[in-house]
Amino acid sequence: MGDPMISKGVTLTRHLLDDRTPLEGDLGALLIKIGAASKLLSREVNRAALHGRLGYTGEVNVQGEQIAQLDLWSNEVFVDALKETGLVCTMVSEEMEAPLHVDRNCLPGSYVVCFDPVDGSSNIDINGTVGTIFSVRHRRGHGREHVAMDTLQKGTEQVAAGYVMYGPSTMFVYAAGHAVHGFTWDQTVDDYLLTHADIRIPQRGKTYSVNCGNYHRWAEPTRQAVDYLSTPDKATGRPYSLRYVGSMVADMHRTLLGGGIFMYPGEAGGGKNANGKLRLLYEVAPMAYIVEQAGGRASTGVERVLDIEPKECHQRVPVVIGSTDDVALVEEFYRGKR
Ligand code: AHM
Ligand code: MG
What is the model's pTM? Predict the structure, then answer.
């Protein structure tokens, strides 16, 4: 008996290589390699305290943020794994100032991968959930000098995106144009097994997820929207519950499965945090792609995330993402309709 999905024992590899899984080009091979690299990372996250790999390096990255030891190690793991595929021509990582161009891999049909190897890294030292986020596009340029053409492509150009969540279980969730599927790592067989086929986000949820510590820095529409969600009203199912891990993968995974809304809004006053904290290419756009394919929406509050034309690799954008009705509601505050 048991769950029929699990008893079928469909591994990630079998699923990706199955003729019935509609994947273009070499995408299946690439996703298998990302899955394999994530298993190394899962083990390392699990054993970081035992290996003395907790804590920070003392360096700051291009965005002025502290670099955790695990950030550097995992970036190398992913870079090496992607290089080895022979399929990835250009990489953008949160941990690398400039895109990495691999000349020998720049063949027709090769890919550009943008990734955040350890997202939510402030959670590492407290044994909290962290994740990896990745986004795959086709190469556009024809050489090192065209690297901007490769990297600065709109979210609509993604051919796949996914995340790995290193939580109580390690999960691999991906979308590649048709559906969103989730796999759970079974340590006993050392493989990802399909446990969440065709994930659909509920049209409306009961939770909102945002760092309320920034409340007094937000613009008025964000404050009004959060006030509205947290005000009791039986008829409209309020208040929503607040859930915030501070690790985008964990907060988005909950939102994807249970519905509701996740936000990282910009700050008022036109300062350096006017566009919030999260980066378009390797955090917001891949999550937007996944959520849209699960039937939800992703917005900056005023425009669709996937339509944004990126201007630079580490660009930040405000994000309001999740259940269709909840995103539409928050947008009404931004449009002044509420
Ligand atoms: P990181 O990539 O440096 O780890 O930062 C991104 C993380 C996200 O996972 C999370 O949503 C956000 O930062 C939390 O930020 P804050 O602590 O400001 O709420
Ligand atoms: Mg990150």
Answer: 0.94
